[in-house]
Amino acid sequence: MSFYSSKAFTDLLLALKIDLLQSDNAVGFNVGKNPFFKKFLWLDFEVKNKAFYNWLDMTSKRTGIYTQILQAKTTLEEPKLHGYQEDIRKTIIINLTKTQEELFSNINENCRKNIRRGEKKGLTFREIATDEFEKYLLLLKATRKKLKLGMPPVYPMFEVWKKYPHNIKVFCIELNKEIIYAMTIFAAGDTITECAIAYNKAGRDLYAGDLMKWGVILWGKNNGFLAYDLAGVSESEPKIFAYKQKFGGQLVTFPVYTKTFSKSKDFIIKLKRKLL
Description:
This protein is of the alpha+beta class. The chain has ten helices and ten strands.
């Protein structure tokens, strides 16, 4: 989810001859100044280098409150040896190597009905055009505002979306030439991951999210991806957990490593979140 990069980060990439978002190995680093609007850096590389952790610490102390290494799949040295605390998270992964018939039959019966009903009502799944990107962001902001939330932790900037067209996709559900549901898909290696979901009242009432999931499943399978990550679940959000389970995926765990550089600021941020 390489939706942000600083000059220092770009210089590091050039120095290490690293290409963003191009291999099976991906690590995300949160070095954003404002945890309410986290910015993630994603690297693809195989390096066991203490100097890298030193650089990350230096950057984080200057620009952020804490750093997170997310879903690490690299050969980095054990983060816990460098002062990171491990937290085990959960997500649901859909196996895209199954046949189309198997994938559809594994979806909850009510969701399958919603998908068929949506198609009969004229809902269509497609990738957004360049001139529709701003509409997507406006819909995303409106969605989050109705939910009384800030912008999601991860969402694409236009420049990065255009720079990495094979790795960042924005899909939509359309009805009568109106976008009623939209979502970003991040592709790295053999896995696609969803984020930044946006919808209006029609999208909610017509269960456009079910057709979106099915459209992404088919797109991922047809484009050679092996897995579809539904971007995390938690027992603290039982409705979201139950909804994502309806699409026939497998519950898996993965580590997140966090290192806090300003405990006082981190405490204040967590306190604000509880009060919101």
